[in-house]
Amino acid sequence: MIPLLQPIFQGAWAPLGETLVCAARPPADAVPVQRLIDEPPRVDELLRRHARHRGVAGADLRAVASSWCFAYLDALLPPVVAAASVLQHVFPTAPHEMRVVVGDDDAAPRSFHIGHAGRAHPGSGCAERLAPLVDLHLAPLFAQLARCSRVAPKILWGNLARRLDGLFEQGLALSGHAPHVALDRDTLLGRPLWHDGRTNPLMARQRPHPGASRTIPLHRQCCLFYRLPGETYCSACPLRSTDANPGFA
Fold first, then answer.
1. What's the CATH number for 3-204?
2. How confident is the model at residue 224 (pLDDT cuts 50, 70, 90)?
3. What pLDDT shows up at residue 214?
4. CB under 8 Å to 174, separation ≥6 — which residues?
């Protein structure tokens, strides 16, 4: 594990910090992230391999793309966001600076590899520390996934919002509710406009559940996992309403 991350990712959390590797020479099977963005056939091949692993038949890859997106975010975000928000240290995350290793069986991302450890950004704003990850890396990757699978981009952005929300919850607990972590969360997830004035695609991804006996936040859009073999609606799915599912309570 990168030494900087060791105080955060201890015990059962250690595997989450080990998905980011800093070394002068990446593994031979590590693929530059830039190639995923620039080469649609490569993304299409990964999605079809992932589809076979998930038991999906047919040409509809929308739910597969959402599943693969979650695997990508689960490998990438914990070490990168923890460093950027809790420690205010920015790892290199631009597509030309990162490589990804995927599994042989499911084509899901396993680890990300960088050639240097970046630098500290104490006192800097959220835009400086996290916007490059979102704008330069994830936005074009989501666009490529949408082109290859026809999945709605809002679903991929919703996946990102869900994962960031959970990570910020952990970051706040770990840091003793540090104000700068709370501000990062509000900037990314709670404001209608992005740092440069664009509409924030991560904002307001939840609404109250209409049929539950207690308040249960619902995601604004479904992640499509219910379309995968063996899966069903998650407990926070917006499709799990009394109208769509009369037996749900």
1. 1.10.510
2. confident
3. 45
4. 8, 86
